[in-house]
């Protein structure tokens, strides 16, 4: 009973909240002329976040390499 409620809550979270921008894009982009830029703005945002996180990871990796505390297996 509890497990099924958790999975229903997760499904509700995605369908009712997290996918709302995608539903809006699907319905409204077909009506506008700026379709490619509008529909790919989310992808560009994800790419920027990915690049920032990758740069942070590389900075931390360089710091551990200089300190000599990296994991040497």
Commentary on this structure:
The protein has one domain. It is an all-alpha fold and 73 residues long. The protein has 3 helices and no strands.
Tertiary shape: flat
Number of strands: 0
The major pleated sheet works out as: none
Order of helices and strands: HHH
Q: Provide the low-confidence segments as ranges.
A: none
Measured distance between first and last alpha carbons: 45 Å
- Beta strand %: under 5%
Mean pLDDT comes to 83
Give the SSE layout.
Blueprint (H helix, E strand, L loop, with lengths): L1 H17 L1 H9 L6 H33 L6
Relevant terms:
single chain, 73 residues, mainly alpha, Uracil phosphoribosyltransferase
Short description:
With 73 residues, the chain is an all-alpha fold. Helices cover 81% and strands 0% of the residues.
